Amino acid sequence: RKGRTPEEVVRRYLQKRSLLFSLPPVLQDCTICMEALAGPSGYKGPGVGGISRAESVGRLSQCGHQYHLQCLVAMYNNGNKDGSLQCPTCKTIYGVKTGNQPPGKMEYHVIPHSLPGHPDCKTIRIIYNIPPGIQGPEHPNPGKPFTARGFPRHCYLPDSEKGRLVLKLLLVAWDRRLIFSVGTSSTTGETDTVIWNEVHHKTEFGSNLTGHGYPDSGHLDNVLEELRAQGIAEEDCLRD
Ligand code: APR
Ligand code: ZN
What we know:
The chain contains five helices and eleven strands; from the N terminus they run αββαβββββββαββαα. By secondary structure, it is an alpha+beta fold. The longest helix has 15 residues, at 161-175. The relative contact order is 0.12. The model has no long low-confidence stretch (mean pLDDT 90). It binds adenosine-5-diphosphoribose and zinc ion (ZN). Zinc ion binds at residues 30, 32-33, 35, 41-42, 67-68, 71.
């Protein structure tokens, strides 16, 4: 969304002001800055300019949650400014959410073995490869190197109808840079490294020593739920 100012992006996702809504939301607080919506934004960073007192509160169009307009703009500026906005209260996504996954490769193929718990089908193996590099402006420490441990990372899905659906959605997630992120590994504590984002993968084939293997009857439904939380659902996938 080049050419749109952060404020214009945010305004696109707000409800048009109605008579009802123009009554001041006296009793509510803005959960971004924790100050009353009836008063000014508690955001103290660089000004967003030109937001008048009368327009200082915005109501998101789908979920209806309300924030100081200035707080929404500040939140947008703190993210990767991809033209999308996510409600911090209910996580509703406006626009298409993208992440900050570094450049790399995603490949997959079918292998002629069955996963524990999926005796009736073969297996899809996904191979992710991301080399180390230098962090961009969308990463925690721009200009600083990041490491990439344990690549290529191999992941497994049953080659069933549902497994293939998950694969299809993971390909969309990959294109939107949502499978990995750069940050601190919760397993190793290493900073400035490539880490899994919020979509769980099974990285063990024949065992489950790490808890990231099979059998796990709830796994595919969990992944579908996690993908949905990133704004990726079956319906969108058909359009993609
Ligand atoms: N396989 C799959 N998912 C994992 C693994 C793993 N081996 N280890 C952690 N996760 C999940 C965690 O449950 C968490 O939800 O990834 C999320 C982020 O965890 P981090 O430890 O921050 O991620 P990362 O450092 O990328 O993973 C550590 O995963 O694939 C391996 O080689 C990699 O050993 C490394 C481990
Ligand atoms: Zn606020």
